[in-house]
Amino acid sequence: MANPHPSNPIKPGETRNPGGRPKADWTFMGLYKAELNKLLKTKDGKKILAKHAVAQRIVRMAIEGDLGAMREIANRIEGMPRQSMEHTGDVNIHIDKVLEK
After folding, report:
1. pLDDT tens string for the chain (101 positions)?
2. Cα–Cα distances in Å, from 76 out to 17, 44, 70, 72, 97?
3. In this structure, is the dihedral angle defined by the CA atoms of residues 21, 35, 27 and 58, taken in order, positive or negative?
4. By the 8 A CB rule, do 40 and 47 touch?
5. Cα(61)–Cα(67) distance, rounded to whole angstroms?
6. What is d(CA 76, CA 88) in angstroms, rounded to the nearest whole number?
7. What's 3's DSSP letter?
8. CA–CA gap between residue 65 and residue 35 (Å, rounded)
């Protein structure tokens, strides 16, 4: 809980972190995004973004029968399928509410 009476209160329009969180271009996500946004040159001299080339390749693989590519497209477009779980034991457990720490 924040201190209700700070010794140096923040004035309206003021922030204690003016620079904000630094951009993390060095993370895998940042590196992947940078690579996928690069322009590539095709064999016929056209320019295409790397992310478009990847998407085209995955679609081509799916059309050619690659089940992994088909699954990837379906999961990205439709979402992951729900997984069900069945319990066949004798334990009677009733959960009424989630307890907080």
Report:
1. 566 666 777 788 787 787 777 766 678 988 999 999 999 999 999 999 999 999 999 999 999 999 999 999 999 999 988 888 777 766 666 666 666 65
2. 36, 30, 10, 6, 33
3. positive
4. yes
5. 9
6. 33
7. -
8. 27
